[in-house]
């Protein structure tokens, strides 16, 4: 019995008559998380985790029709049991568990196993079919622990401070920026760009406490941010506004920085492999431990990852979807998806 179908509009649940993270307008959409490639405008109605609601409203519009649920709170849609489970990717991110006549399918969206202290930690959900991303589905991608990574960020700030420099971190406004804020809290005053401040409000509105920060307008006089910490979205890299920051050293924070070539990209002063996605080992671990007899791979290194699974006894198939690398990750792209 087939429960899920890949349609031109997106991933479709046949008996439930709903889509998950559709990329074209449909009547009923379940949204795994607030990143722009998964949460698009134009849907008749949205269903998501309650932490994702303020993000959808900020990004898509106040007037959208949203129903929200908690994690592990099953609801019935046209006879299908649907529940959301933590994906550990960003705030509110959820795997969608679909159960119908004894068969269970899990659509995981984007996920990571490392606990960043901001997203609800990933929960493994057993299933018959598992739909996974593979953004970093190559063996070269193996993350440092969060503690080690945070220490790298802190050491870099100390080094900059000893040279009288301002530490500028570049990271995507939703997910990455807040992690950086937590990693560097207490070392110096933190200034964030307004696009990050806007999403910080979404965190705060659901009761998540972030370190103290101030919003900075880079067109204004910038003396007050000198030698402090500044966090900016990737869209500003290479623009003239960023050059106005006095005594700046800047670091790019992205999973791609795990690769040496990427570290030199645009001659940033430093690169830190901060990622909101599972690395190679964690992708393998999750797909195996779900017990799924069939795995669909939606985006990222789909060819390599599905081939590897097939060669290791897990039936896997690449599917073509419109999910991309979040634009934050594609720093090469220069556009920010907000
Ligand atoms: Zn994402
Ligand atoms: Zn994605």
Task: Spell out the key features of this protein.
single chain; alpha/beta; 7-stranded mixed β-sheet; 25% strand; binds zinc ion; 8 helices; 22% helix; 6-stranded mixed β-sheet; 338 residues; disordered C terminus
Provide an overview of this structure.
- With 338 residues, the chain is an alpha/beta fold.
- Strand 16, helix 6 and strand 17 (270-272) form a beta-alpha-beta unit.
- The chain has a 7-stranded mixed β-sheet, covered by helices on one side. Strands 1-2-3-4-5-6 form a 6-stranded mixed β-sheet, with no helix packed on it. The chain has a 6-stranded parallel β-sheet with strand order 14-13-15-12-16-17.
- It has helices at 53-59, 146-162, 176-184, 194-205, 240-243, 260-263, 280-289, 302-311, and strands at residues 4-6, 11-13, 18-20, 28-30, 45-49, 66-69, 75-77, 80-86, 94-100, 103-107, 129-134, 166-170, 190-193, 214-216, 229-232, 248-253, 270-272, 294-300, 315-318.
- The site of one zinc ion (ZN) has 6 residues, from loops.
């Amino acid at each position: 019995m087939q429960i899920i179908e890949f349609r031109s509009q997106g991933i479709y649940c046949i008996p439930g008559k709903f889509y998950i993270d559709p990329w074209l307008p449909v009547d009923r959409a379940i949204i795994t998380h607030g990143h722009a490639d998964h949460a698009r405008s134009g849907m008749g109605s949205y269903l998501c985790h309650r932490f994702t609601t303020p993000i959808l409203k900020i990004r898509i519009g106040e007037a959208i029709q949203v129903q929200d649920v908690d994690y592990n709170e099953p609801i019935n849609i046209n006879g299908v049991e649907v529940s959301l489970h933590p994906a550990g990717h960003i705030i509110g991110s959820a795997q969608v568990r679909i159960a119908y006549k004894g068969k269970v399918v899990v659509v995981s969206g984007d996920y990571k196993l490392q606990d960043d202290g901001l997203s609800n930690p990933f929960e493994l959900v057993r299933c018959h079919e598992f739909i996974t991303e593979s953004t970093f589905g190559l063996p070269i991608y193996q993350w440092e622990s969060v503690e080690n990574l945070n220490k790298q960020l802190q050491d870099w700030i100390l080094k900059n401070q000893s040279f009288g420099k301002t530490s500028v971190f570049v990271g995507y406004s939703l997910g990455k920026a807040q992690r950086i804020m937590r990693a560097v809290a207490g070392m110096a005053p933190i200034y964030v760009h307004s696009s990050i401040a806007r999403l910080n409000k979404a965190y705060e509105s659901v009761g998540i406490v972030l370190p103290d920060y101030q919003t900075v307008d880079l067109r204004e006089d910038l003396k007050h941010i000198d030698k402090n910490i500044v966090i900016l979205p990737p869209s500003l890299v290479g623009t003239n506004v960023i050059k106005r920051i006095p005594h700046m050293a800047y670091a790019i924070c992205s999973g791609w920085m795990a690769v040496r070539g990427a570290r030199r990209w645009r001659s940033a002063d430093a690169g830190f492999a901060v990622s909101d996605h599972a690395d190679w080992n964690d992708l393998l671990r999750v797909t195996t431990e779900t017990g799924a007899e069939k795995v669909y791979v939606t985006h990222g290194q789909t060819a390599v990852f599905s081939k590897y699974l097939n060669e290791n006894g897990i039936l896997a198939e690449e599917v073509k979807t419109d999910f991309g690398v979040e634009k934050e990750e594609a720093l090469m792209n220069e556009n920010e998806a907000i």
